[in-house]
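Let's study a protein:

___
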Amino acid sequence: MKYLDEFRDEAAARALSQEIRNVTTRAWILMEICGGQTHTIVKSGIDELLPSSITLVHGPGCPVCVTPLEKIDRAIALASRPDVILTSFGDMLRVPGSSTDLLSVKAGGGDVRMVYSPLDAVKIARNNPSRQVVFFGVGFETTAPANAMAIWQAHQLKLDNFSLLCSHVLVPPAIDALLASRTNRVQGFLAAGHVCTVMGYEEYIPLAAKYRVPIVVTGFEPVDILQGILMTVKQLETGRFEVENQYSRSVRREGNIHARNLIDRIFEPGDQKWRGIGLIPKSGYAIRSEFSTFNAEKRFPIDVAEVQESPLCIAGEVLQGLKKPHECSAFGTQCTPESPIGAPMVSSEGACAAYFLYGRMNRAPT
């Protein structure tokens, strides 16, 4: 593509935005799946460079945001045990469960530790043989190889004090569920480049054909996203519904075969509840039975009640592209990064956090 080598160039971004204006003759609604792309769009004002006929809505591409309350409550219950060291990434420590969060458990004396990799948790388990170490692993397919490697390494080391509380979610089933919904209004997708770097994009091809929507694998720089939008709009304007790869400098059709083989060795598809959306069949990873000794839910059977979201929070509608964050009555008042009601205000990839951070406080509906 002619702008690929200039992906940090403002002039290239303006040229792309003008080309988008030139080819657009109708109103289109596009969804970016990745929360990182959402932050780039809002921070860089990409949506403001587009013609008014193109609406960008934000999808369920923030893994922290879609982790169900029950799973967070389970992590909190584990962290409250004196024999457990609970480890996870920093974002997860601030996500509210039904009554508290992991940081509050830590402040109350629980051994909760932020790590940068699940392999750090394996190391902690080796260094603390008298304690049970649990890694709270969330994420899309992007983080699955590292979590799979942690289990494989613990298996090789014969560690009996390491386990994974698994809450992996998968992108293609989520796209399928969104497009099958009677409330769907999305006409084209920007697929997450980092997910496709691992998994490739063959799974998207039948979805594009089934629902007649273009899907463009897209990177994360402003010009990457503008180029992805241009490619999507060109398909829509010409009546094509294909999978295209804007992020060819990182993504191959088949993905990373070694990473995929490792994922398949440790995990299998399973039904998964998405916070704010509900249960989506085969939309998550479950630990295979042969590695069940490393499954924290089996090692620590804890009864966790199903709970409801705050009635003030519209995270489910935001994650499905039905509303924008500033259309929430609690946005910026009762719900802020310092006192979040919903997960999209906590996570560094959350749409609500992006709108708050970059001053998108306009409450008028888009």
Notes: Residues 267 and 287 are 5 Å apart (CA to CA). The longest strand covers residues 278-287.
